[in-house]
Amino acid sequence: MRIGVLTAGGDCPGLNAVIRSIVHRAVTNYGDEVIGFEDGYAGLLDGRYRTLDLNAVSGILARGGTILGSSRLERARFAAACDNAKALVEKSGFDALIPIGGEGTLTAARMLSDAGVPVVGVPKTIDNDISSTDRTFGFDTAVGVATEAMDRLKTTAESHQRVMVVEVMGRHAGWIALESGMAGGAHGICLPERPFDPADLVKMVEERFSRGKKFAVICVAEGAHPAEGSMDYGKGEIDQFGHERFQGIGTALAYELERRLGKEARPVILGHVQRGGTPTAYDRVLATRFGWHAVEAVHRGEFGNMTALRGTDVRMVPLAEAVTRLKTVPEDRMREAESVF
Ligand code: F6P
């Protein structure tokens, strides 16, 4: 068989581990040829690819990013190409395609599948917000980075008697904020799922200082927002790429707390640090398992599905099921954190 692989959307630690696993299983066990499309779906549409043999994936298990490159989807061009899926497949001559990506990538994978392309998806995102899978690789690494940052910030915060507002990734779902906030012992956690009131955070900080504590750390997801009328937090401007550019919630909240508390506060935006660098052992193992199962599914002809972690098992689930809604943090998980929301 000739199997195509691509990585699309925002990168994530563990992508190379999946690619390596696919190549090892497909080449060694089945004698397949694996081709890697460059820069996500752009490479598929342009017919830009290279052969991935064992040497091509040697030494990449622990490497962050993706050796294939990635890009965001050009929707209009992609939809037009789906109209002639047969030509798309013939252009590169593959028998099966394994797209590795997040919600956008898997939605596109579903479109390809509906158009008749033999597709098996592999979910990835540091946000852990893809429904149908209990975990995505990359999440554990991101949580580890954010936790370590909070551990470090506590010592400098205490020295200067400051409030640290740590902004982590998560535009629509607050999984990274929830778990890193819990692991890092944040005194307040703000998630996109539940609007927060800065007055509650002020109360929490004042209570801490009144019992002799000299600092506070608040973990806020980038998509968290204040409750209506609780704080002035405006909209940003749209830049030349169509992205909204505005003062992020971490910065806005730090300044707001500083003003209300009369104590120094500092925003710390962790940003893409959470997505870079080497994956944790957990993410390497999950990524490797997903790659292995994706190849098995290809050889069983189970197309239109993606790999998913259910409990401790890897299963195949329909792409249609996976991309209908985002997996957000439920109320009971927020309550377990026992923090200020
Ligand atoms: O979806 C993964 C993610 O890292 C989000 O947490 C974040 O909001 C977004 O991607 C950042 O995207 P970009 O790399 O395009 O700035």
TrEMBL record:
Pfam family, one: PFK
Gene Ontology terms for molecular function: 6-phosphofructokinase activity; AMP binding; ATP binding; diphosphate-fructose-6-phosphate 1-phosphotransferase activity; fructose-6-phosphate binding; identical protein binding; metal ion binding; monosaccharide binding
Keyword tags: ATP-binding, Cytoplasm, Glycolysis, Kinase, Magnesium, Metal-binding, Nucleotide-binding, Transferase
Leader sequence residues: none
Matching InterPro entries: ATP_PFK, ATP_PFK_prok-type, Phosphofructokinase_CS, Phosphofructokinase_dom, Phosphofructokinase_III, PKF_sf
Cofactor: Mg(2+)
GO terms, biological process: canonical glycolysis; fructose 1,6-bisphosphate metabolic process; fructose 6-phosphate metabolic process
Origin superkingdom: Bacteria
Originating species: Streptomyces termitum
Enzyme Commission number(s): 2.7.1.11
Binding annotation for substrate: T125, I126, D127, R162, M169, G170, R171, E222, R266, H272, V273, Q274, R275
Protein name: ATP-dependent 6-phosphofructokinase
Catalytic activity entry: beta-D-fructose 6-phosphate + ATP = beta-D-fructose 1,6-bisphosphate + ADP + H(+)
Binding-site residues for Mg(2+), renumbered to this chain: E103
